[in-house]
């Protein structure tokens, strides 16, 4: 299957240490892109777009805007951007050359194997997990199927939850996580583990002292008058314990190729670009080349009929 996606894969370099969940329904009448921009400037390394009520066209538009904000911050090569649940939208966005690096799946979404088959080997795929026993089942997935797992929640749902994002964070798991539970899940998992769920500043120190790969936050930024400062505090608390330490990655299948297939792939493989401007320029050039080729074809057909 041919893909128009021009950006380099983030599968070998995604960073879960500081994840922000972008939710257009939780912005309190502020532009979502402004809060995403605040999070990026404060040090967010991973963005998840979660949309409850928007249709595919609307989500694609929002994704395009967020991708542009990432580009404007010169972070196309350092920040990973995924969309929650909507594999169809991710596929569409990537085919429209929008920098969407992958998808985050819940247990009720498309089966991970099918998502991988549709999105290809370059996409990042995450999966929400409810319990330690389920982690063991997920470990049985084929190598390279998913890239990370996510567990919730740091706070009880009954503590109060206005935001749709916060409700989403808590829907799978109605028991709170502590250091011991997080470590148990991390030890059982073959994948890096993202932890969150109504995450407060005090929780960052707890998570940082576990085996978790990183944390995600949403409500704390939406309820803040200064989202950038709030996000920066979270990032600084994490780095005070972890520094610049980077998590590991899940095993992936490396397929051996014979010289003939390598030669064929060398001829057909499309170039990838980390720099967003290079990617856009290349896409424009390719489009113009297709137009020129089509025009030459029309001219040749006209001559043939004379």
Summary, kept brief:
The chain is an alpha/beta fold and 306 residues long. It is 45% helix and 12% strand.
Protein model, in words:
This protein has 306 residues and is an alpha/beta fold. The protein has two domains: 18-242, Aldolase class I (TIM Barrel, Alpha-Beta Barrel); 271-305. 45% of the residues lie in helices and 12% in strands. It contains twelve helices and eight strands. The chain has helices at 32-42, 56-72, 87-95, 112-119, 132-138, 164-170, 179-188, 201-208, 219-222, 227-242, 259-268, 276-305, and strands spanning 18-22, 46-49, 80-84, 102-105, 124-128, 148-152, 193-196, 214-217. The chain has an eight-stranded parallel beta barrel, surrounded by eight helices. Helix 5 links the parallel strand 5 (124-128) and strand 6. The longest helix is centred in the last third of the chain and has 30 residues, at 276-305. The chain starts with 17 loop residues before the first strand and ends with a helix. The relative contact order is 0.15.
What keyword list fits this structure?
45% helix, 2 domains, TIM Barrel, alpha/beta, disordered C terminus, 8 strands, eight-stranded parallel barrel, 306 residues
Q: What does the average pLDDT come to?
A: 83
Report strand order across the widest sheet: 1-2-3-4-5-6-7-8
Oligomeric organization of the protein chains: single chain
List SSEs in N-to-C order: EHEHEHEHEHEHHEHEHHHH
Number of strands: 8
Helix vs. strand class:
alpha/beta
CATH class identity of the largest domain: Alpha Beta
**How helical, in percent, are the residues?**
40-55%
Indicate how many domains the architecture comprises: 2
> Between the first and last Cα atoms, what is the distance in angstroms?
38 Å
Measured by DSSP, the beta-strand proportion falls in 5-15%
* Largest sheet properties: 8 strands, parallel, barrel
Question: What overall geometry do the principal axes of the alpha carbons give?
Answer: globular
CATH topology of the largest domain: the name is: TIM Barrel
* CATH homologous superfamily label of the largest domain: Aldolase class I
**In the CATH classification, which architecture of the largest domain applies?**
Alpha-Beta Barrel
Q: List the total number of helices.
A: 12
What is the CA-atom radius of gyration, in angstroms?
21 Å
């Amino acid at each position: 299957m041919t893909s128009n996606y021009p950006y380099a894969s983030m599968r070998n370099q995604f960073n879960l240490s500081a994840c922000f969940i972008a939710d257009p329904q939780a912005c309190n009448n502020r532009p979502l892109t402004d809060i995403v921009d605040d999070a990026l400037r404060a040090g967010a390394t991973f963005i998840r777009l979660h949309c409850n009520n928007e249709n595919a066209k609307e989500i694609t538009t929002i994704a395009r805007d967020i991708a542009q904000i990432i580009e404007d911050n010169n972070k196309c090569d350092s920040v990973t951007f995924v969309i929650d649940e909507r594999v169809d939208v991710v596929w569409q966005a990537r085919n429209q050359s929008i920098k969407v690096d992958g998808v985050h799946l819940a247990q009720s979404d498309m089966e991970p194997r099918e998502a991988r088959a549709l999105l290809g080997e370059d996409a990042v795929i995450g999966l929400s997990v409810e319990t330690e026993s389920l982690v063991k089942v997920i470990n049985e997935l084929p190598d390279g199927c998913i890239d990370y797992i996510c567990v919730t929640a740091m706070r009880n749902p009954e503590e109060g939850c206005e935001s749709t994002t916060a409700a989403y964070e808590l829907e799978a798991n109605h028991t709170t996580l502590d250091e011991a539970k997080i470590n148990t899940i991390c030890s059982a998992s073959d994948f890096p583990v993202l932890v969150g769920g109504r995450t407060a500043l005090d929780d960052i120190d707890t998570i940082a002292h576990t085996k978790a790969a990183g944390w995600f936050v949403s409500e704390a930024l939406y309820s803040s008058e200064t989202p950038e400062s709030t996000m920066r505090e979270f990032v600084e608390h994490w780095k005070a314990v972890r520094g610049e330490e980077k998590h590991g990655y899940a095993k992936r299948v490396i397929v051996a190729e014979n010289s003939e297939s390598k030669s064929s792939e060398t001829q057909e493989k499309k170039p990838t670009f980390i720099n967003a401007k290079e990617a856009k320029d290349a896409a424009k050039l390719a489009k113009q080349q297709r137009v020129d080729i089509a025009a030459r074809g029309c001219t040749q057909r006209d001559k043939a009929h004379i």
